[in-house]
C-alpha cells in the first residue's frame, strides 16, 4: 500500500505547490501579456499542461531519491541537491512574475539548469539511470524556458 501512497503524496504535494505559486503570481498575468515575447512562445494553454506533467515527473524523481537516500550517502547528497533545485525552481515564478526581474530571473533559470545538469550526471553515474533519464524532459524544457526568458529580457529593456 505504501508503494502507492508515498508517490501519490509526492505528486499531490508538488502539484499543490505549483498551483499555489500559480495563484500567487496570477495577478501579474496582465503585465506578462504586455511583454514582447519570442515568436516561438507557446500558446498560453501549454504552460499549465507542460508544467503539471514536469512536476509529476519531478515528484516521482524526488520520491525515488528520498527512498534511496536512506541507504546511500551519495543518494542522500543528490537528494539534498534535488531539494535545492526545487526551491530554486519554485522561486523563479516570484522573481519573474512578482518581481519583474527579467535578467535576474534569466540567470536564476541558468542556476536551475546547472543544478539539473549536475543532478543528471550524478544520477547517471550512480545506480539511478532511470532517474537521470526522467530528468531529460525537464532539462529540455528548462533550456527552452531559458531561451524564452532571455528573449523577454532582451526585448523588454
Number of helices: 6
**Count of individual beta strands:** 0
Mean pLDDT reading: 93
Number of domains: 1
The SS-based structural class is mainly alpha
- Which outline best applies? globular
The ordered string of helix (H) and strand (E) elements is: HHHHHH
Please give the largest β-sheet. none
* Helical content (DSSP H or I, runs of 4+): over 70%
Radius of gyration: 16 Å
* Poorly predicted segments: none
Taking the alpha carbons of the first and last residues, their distance comes to 53 Å
Beta content comes to under 5%
Quick structural summary:
With 157 residues, the protein is an all-alpha fold. The chain contains six helices and no strands.
List keywords for this structure.
single chain; 157 residues; mainly alpha; 6 helices; globular
